[in-house]
Amino acid sequence: MSLAGQLLPLVGVALGAVTSFLAVSLNERTKWRRQQSIRWDERRMTAPMPSTSIA
Description:
80% helix
């Protein structure tokens, strides 16, 4: 088997691994941002209302 015949499958596997890693990283990052947004919203809803006294 020639060097090119051995190198092409290896490059394909490496490219697939990098693509898979990038896709999973982007997905996890999006999920984390969404969870942080929801947490902020929940904290805002459960925060005590400031007492405003009109004099």
